Amino acid sequence: MAVLTESEVRKKLSKNSDNIREFYVQKNQIITPSAKSYLSQENIEIKYVDNIENINKTKQDELVENKKYKYISVFGAKLNEKPEHMTSLHGNLLVFKDHKRIILRGKIDSLESKIIQSQILCQKHNMSKLIKDLEEILNFVRNIMRCEVLEEKLKDFTLLDLSEHEIREQSHYPKKYFGIDHEFVSYKMGEIVVSINDLRSATREVELSAYQAFKGEYGEVERQDIIKALNRLSSLFWIMIYKIRTGKYD
């Protein structure tokens, strides 16, 4: 009886550049635990079939048929021209521009713009350390966008030398780490604080949009990695506000 190992699964997947979401295994074939774990990590569902040769032939026929056209819509329509009211979800797959994931991408794009605007403001105030931190955050946000578009898992991260746990801890207990209590942002705190707070609230909007984009019918979430990253980022902006107010960026 044939045994399908993780290395063989990886080899089979590497031969196909398409965005695979299903991996077919013949019913009399054993798949190792490590191979199953790898497929699970890649969000690929295992499907057992009676005759894998028939499945492969069907998939190959579909691929040949689809290559005759430049685009395919989520409804199965095959097109050679992209309608103005549609855009690419990934590859040549088209969706309407009000698709929830397209809305999410628009909000991420807007957040990137706001970060750059804050950098310009910081430059006017000669706050080079803050500009550098914002640049790191900008690259982080761009990587979130990249992972969403390419449907790649967002890896564990640190931001401004803080782990995910440290970000959560310090943002929740400012008195312990910065010597000040949490307060609502006021104009009296200055335009730099107001600008960073604008980034914080914009990040919250992106996070809510991500939840809407990846929420299942019963509230389950596909991309918890992205949602958690955005949650930590909004907390990080609180930490930056505390640092500004206590002179750590002077």
Automatic annotation (TrEMBL):
Keyword ATP-binding: yes
Highest rank taxon of the organism: Bacteria
Residue ranges constituting the Cobalamin adenosyltransferase-like domain according to the UniProt record: 81-242
Pfam families given in the database record: Cob_adeno_trans
KW Transcription (keyword) present: no
Keywords of the record: ATP-binding, Nucleotide-binding, Transferase
Protein name as it appears in the record: Cobalamin adenosyltransferase-like domain-containing protein
